[in-house]
Each structure stands twice: as C-alpha cells, then as structure tokens.
Amino acid sequence: MTGSERTAVVVEDDDDIRELITHSLTMQGFEVAAAASGQAGLDLVMANDPDLVTLDLGLPDLDGIEVCRRVRDVSQAYVVMISARTDEIDRLMGLEIGADDYLTKPFSPRELQARVNAMFRRPRAVRATADVPAAGTNGSPPAPTPAATPSGGESDATTIRHGRIAVDAEGRVVTVDGKEADLTRTEFDLLATLLSAPRRVWSRAVLLDGLWGPGWSEEHLVEVHVGNLRRKLTKLGPAGGRAPIRTVRGVGYRMEEPDAF
C-alpha cells in the first residue's frame, strides 16, 4: 500500500485539534475526511472504508467508546483513540472494545505520526526464528507465510489449523468450528503470530515489538489484546472450553496443544 492510497477519518469536536490531526495525517500521505461528531464520523467510516480512524472520546453526541464499538462492527481500520482523560480505566476500556492505540491530550503531531507509522509497519505474523521480525527488501517487515504447526496442528497453502481454530492468512479470517471470529486487525495479527510457532513462549516484549513496532514499553497493550482474543475464541468454542492460549508466568504466552480446546 502506498501513501497515496491510504485514507483516514478524523472524529474530533475541537476545531483546532481536528485541523491539527488532519494536517498531520495529510503530511503523511493520507486522504483525510473529518467530522465533529460521533454520528458524522460513523457516516464517514461507512462511506470511505478508511485505513485509519482517529477518535476523540469526549464527543458531543455519542460517547467515543460507543463510536469505537460501532466502527468495529463495520470496519477493520486501525483506530487511535485521543482523549484528555488520563485515567488508566479509560485507556483500557478503549483498547478492550477494539482500539489499537490511545493518545492523551496534549500530544505532539510528531508523536501521532510515529504511532501511525508503527501501526502500518506491523507484520501480519512475527517470524519465530528471531526476537525481532526480519525486514523485507524494502525495509518493511515481511508478510506472513502460513507454516506447519509442530504441536499437532495442520496447514495448507493458505490456512493454519490448530485444533478447532483455523486461520486463513490470505483472507485474514479466523474460524472456530467453522464459525467466524470477529477479530480486530491486532487480534488477528496476535493469533497468527502465536500460531507461527505454537510451542514457542512469546514474551510480551517480543510481541509488543513485533506488532506495535520498536520502542514501545507498555506491555499492558499485549495483555489487553490477549484477553480480548481469548474471550472471542472461547465464546465460539464448546461450552466449558477455553481458548488454548496459555500464560507463562513472568514470561509471556504460548499456544496449548490443539486438543486442549
């Protein structure tokens, strides 16, 4: 994807901040549509199918959390929440309902640009042979390639299977017993990463570096998205079952055996 092909929707009721974000994203090569209310922002998302949405929490009509929830019903765009609220509960709530990142006001355009760049550099799966994803020929992370799962799963040309779970790497679709899971981009990338080497224990630092980009230290981002992923997979599985993602205390996460779910 080249910069000229990227589109963004900015949802912000403060005129100055909306213009600042719009200008910043335009300088990054985005074609930007902006709205001053939640409903207008949702209309733009429906009309433009953007690659990125920046979303203020304190909107005059709909709460930003509700707007994010509705965006997730219709779009797989990256979502960056922007808010003057500094409480951790607001940040965690935003991440739990599908936001990919959270910025607190005031913020610099350079910080926003850096975080957007990090999101768009994400690989679709982190290679298992190194702690940091290898760069492609153009300097970007490699695209994911389905790999056999040595813990008992199966794979074909486009699908990785692990017990009840099937991941279509090309179509970016995850199913559990044939039922499609409604995953965000981050949740899909996280599952694909874990399945790329299911016996490996993936540290939070490695997952954070591979999925959010180098220089990040907020490992709670990984914990929140793992929790979301577990809940969504468990919901589609058998009654009384649980998603086969094991926490390795003090280290990170790995997949359990395929028959564990």
Return the structural class: alpha/beta
Which blocks of ≥5 consecutive residues have pLDDT under 50?
123-155
Mean pLDDT, to the nearest integer, reads: 80
Strand segment count: 13
CATH class of the largest domain: Alpha Beta
Summarize the structure.
It is built from 8 helices and 13 strands.
Please describe what this structure looks like.
This protein has 261 residues and is an alpha/beta fold. The protein has two domains: 3-120, Rossmann fold (3-Layer(aba) Sandwich), CATH 3.40.50.2300; 154-260, Arc Repressor Mutant, subunit A (Orthogonal Bundle), CATH 1.10.10. Helices cover 36% and strands 20% of the residues. The protein has eight helices and 13 strands. The chain has helices spanning 15-27, 38-48, 64-74, 88-96, 109-120, 185-196, 204-212, 220-236, and strands spanning 7-11, 31-35, 52-56, 78-83, 101-104, 154-155, 159-162, 165-168, 173-176, 179-180, 202-203, 245-248, 252-255. The protein has a five-stranded parallel sheet, sandwiched between helices. Strand 4, helix 4 and strand 5 (101-104) form a beta-alpha-beta unit. Helix 1 crosses helix 5 (109-120), helix 2 runs parallel beside helix 3 and helix 6 packs across helix 8 (220-236). It is globular, with a radius of gyration of 18 Å. The protein starts with 6 loop residues before the first strand and ends in a 6-residue tail after the last strand.
